[in-house]
Write a structure and sequence with these properties.
The protein has about 190 residues and is an alpha/beta fold. The chain has one domain: Rossmann fold. The chain is about 20% helix and about 35% strand. The strands form 2 sheets. It has a 6-stranded mixed beta sheet. It has a 3-stranded antiparallel beta sheet with strand order 1-9-8, with helices on one face. α1 packs across α2. Bound molecules: inosinic acid and magnesium ion (MG). Magnesium ion (MG) binds next to β5.
């Protein structure tokens, strides 16, 4: 194991089972409907690709990119769209797909923002959730796994843009201050 990785927290097998379970649930909940999966770039790219293949209702995919306005290292939670959707979501059933919910600010603001475009319904789906870190309440409809308050990388999640390609989810070693130091995220 590389020295910057402390421990494997979630194996690729567990991740696959998690995607299977969420895909089956979504397929059941949206039976008879069409959905648009909205990938929040970049972190959710791996998860959305896997999840989509376990969903059996007709679907489209779209992508958006956001960054949080922050003063210094603190995020204000106001999200700015840096890449908007290509599709019009008015009257559509949309599911926003995130990699991880931490403070909850990103998903809360994203939901508010997308709601103003009048989709038929909006649901939130995340691969991972760190409930201990929550600063604002946000109702996440589909949660893959709850994890402890650790900084994780792999399976799309990065530190300073790196490690997204690791197939398992691992805990990053040493520096506990890393997430406060503008690690890049998203
Ligand atoms: P929130 O607005 O605080 O919920 O921010 C969530 C975003 O922060 C995620 O979409 C990630 O991009 C990033 N993030 C939060 N925790 C981690 C982590 O443990 N590893 C990698 N990125 C993280
Ligand atoms: Mg993200």
């Amino acid at each position: 194991m590389a020295k910057y990785i402390k421990d494997v927290l979630i194996t690729r097998d567990e991740i696959d089972k998690m995607c299977q379970r969420l895909g089956a649930q979504i397929s059941k909940d949206y039976e008879g409907k069409e959905v648009i999966l909205i990938c929040v770039l970049k972190g959710a790219y791996a998860f959305m690709a896997d999840l989509a293949r376990y969903i059996t209702v007709p679907l489209r995919v779209d992508f958006m990119s956001v960054s949080s306005y922050g003063s210094g290292t603190r995020t204000s939670g106001v999200v700015r769209i840096t890449k908007d959707l290509d599709s019009d979501i008015t009257g559509k059933h949309i599911i926003v797909v995130e990699d991880i919910v931490d403070s909850g600010l990103t998903l809360k603001h994203l939901k508010e923002l997308l709601t103003t475009r009048n989709p038929a319904s909006i649901a939130l789906c995340t691969a991972f959730d760190k409930p201990e870190r929550r600063r604002v309440e946000v109702d996440v409809d589909y949660v893959g796994m709850e994890i402890p308050d650790e900084f994780i990388v792999g399976y799309g999640l990065d530190f300073d843009g790196k490690y997204r390609n690791l197939p398992d989810v691992s805990i990053l070693g040493d520096d506990r201050d890393q997430r406060e130091n503008g690690q890049g995220g998203n």
